[in-house]
Amino acid sequence: MVAQDFESVLKGRYPAKAHAKRVVDIIRRQVPDANGVLYLESRMTKLQEDNDSPEHFRQRRYFYYLTGCNLADCRFAYDIQASKAILFIPPIDPSDVIWSGLPVSADNALQMYDVDEVKFTTDVNPTLTHLATQNPKSTVFAIAGQVSDNVTFLEFDNKDFAALKDAVEVARVVKDEFEVALMRKANHISSLGHKAVLERARTAAYERELEAAFLGKCVALGAKEMAYHPILAGGKAAATLHYVDNNAPLEGKLNVLVDAGAEWDNYAADITRTFPLSGKFSKESRDIYDVVYKMQKDCIAMIKAGVLWDDVHLHAHRVAVDGLLSLGILRGDAEEILEARTSAAFFPHGLGHYLGLDTHDVGGNPNRHDTDAFFRYLRLRGRVPAGSVVTVEPGVYFCEFIIQPYLDDPVHGKYINSAVLDKYWDVGGVRIEDNVLVTESGSENLTSATKEPGEIEAVICR
After folding, report:
1. What does this protein do (predicted)?
2. pLDDT confidence bin for 2, thresholds 50/70/90
3. What is the pLDDT at residue 4?
4. What is the tens place of the pLDDT at every residue in 104-122?
5. 272 beta partners
6. Contact 277, 253 (CB under 8 A)
């Protein structure tokens, strides 16, 4: 699909009923005769502590996946037997209209969302009772901890608070055309945001100015919500994986690592770029950039439906070892270094994760108890299906607190040349991250942000 074609797809409605049917099919793999109702609630309005203003609203992703509705204080019921979707919206509160304006009406909601009927939240209990009595011995499927106290399931013979959440998480892994279009738009806007950061690089005095450049571009293009707190890490701070300060001065620092992505209708982009503040990579910075760039290109080339993500991640380490050996930072036999897992000192995180309604999206099945240092922090395990979207984000970092224990260890220390390593501390860290759609025969990169070293330098110096 051509980059701008996402706009034509997004003229349609979010395919919520297709998602509901998919979720039902998944539930029925575990419960073949499953019938009854799927029940979900949106995020409720909540005031800030000691304040009469509401907390920042973030829609519950499970609710959104089955409704496409981004309104607060709503409910949803899906009649499995009738394949009927019912959205419940808050009734109009006349005293609130002067403050907040008219809310979405029932007629408007029926046009906006892929549902069969729109009712008010005052109708929830009578409607659930009716659905339960219509289908004796039916089950209500809901999510534990996400059902209001005033909602009653008394008429249902069975209540299941586990299957729905698990099924939605499985369903969300494979994206349909509309979801991919949302992610294309999030990537398009975020990539323009990254370009704005490059254009600001040589004149910015503080990290926060670069953050402002990214946020300003995204908001101006209609993406007011960020998928996560942006990371703008100058110099050695780039070795802190989830750096949050974004406030340090940039003077005297070689590079900046920018990990930032906007949302479009709750779907995330997650993009990282690393670049020289001066507009010209130093020798050491370019050395590391080229290693990481090769890690990413080689790994993207491996991606297609059914590939084992562990294998792609392991290949990233193999490329890292070869690159660091060629620079003299590592020494010895490549296979021995891999077997010892010494490269985890420089590449300690996973290669990537699923992306969608959440930045670290569901369905990845990580194993935090894995004793293998290469895989312990990998957020995605197993084989990736066509239609999933993954991040590919290799990195090489020079963090003293991680590397020093390796230097002091007799097994790892013999593979690291500290004299050569000393030349690279100021590089901080390099990470390059794109969002990749998995296809049957390969993949498609959704991210257009500049990453060719020469192009990066040209944009900064323009």
Report:
1. Catalyzes the removal of a penultimate prolyl residue from the N-termini of peptides.
2. very low
3. 60
4. 999 999 999 999 999 999 9
5. 259, 433
6. yes
The confidence score (pLDDT) of residue 200 equals 98
Residue with tokens 């919500």: 225
Per the structure block, which two tokens stand in for 438? 């998995």
pLDDT in tens, 409-421: 999 999 999 999 9
The span from the CA of 48 to the CA of 40, in Å, is 24
Do residues 64 and 73 make contact, with C-beta atoms less than 8 angstroms apart?
A: no
HEC secondary structure over the chain: CCHHHHHHHCCCCCCHHHHHHHHHHHHHHHCCCCCEEEEEECCCCCECCCCCCECCCCCCHHHHHHHCCCCCCCEEEEECCCCEEEEEECCCCHHHHHHHCCCCCHHHHHHHCCCCEEEEHHHHHHHHHHHHHHCCCCEEECCCCCCCCCCCCCCCCEEECCHHHHHHHHHCCCCCHHHHHHHHHHHHHHHHHHHHHHHHCCCCCEHHHHHHHHHHHHHHCCCCCECCCCEEEEHHHHHCCCCCCCCCECCCCCEEEEEECEEECCEECCEEEEEECCCCCCHHHHHHHHHHHHHHHHHHHHCCCCCEHHHHHHHHHHHHHHHHHHHCCECCCHHHHHHHCHHHHCCCCCCCCECCCCCCCCCCCCCCCCCCCCCCCCCCCCECCCCCEEEECCEEECCHHHHHHHHHCHHHHCCECHHHHCCCHHHCEEECEEEEEECCCCEEECCCCCCCHHHHHHHHHC
Residue 48: CB atoms within 10 Å:
10
The tens digit of pLDDT for each residue in 30-63 reads 999 899 999 999 999 999 998 989 999 999 999 9
pLDDT band at 5 (very low <50, low <70, confident <90, very high): confident
Q: Whose CA is closest to 272, among 373, 172, 351? A: 351
Q: Are strands 36-41 and 139-141 parallel, antiparallel or unpaired?
A: parallel
Chain centre distance of CA 292: 21
Q: Does the pLDDT at position 3 exceed 60?
A: no
As a whole number of angstroms, the distance between CA 16 and CA 42 comes to 14
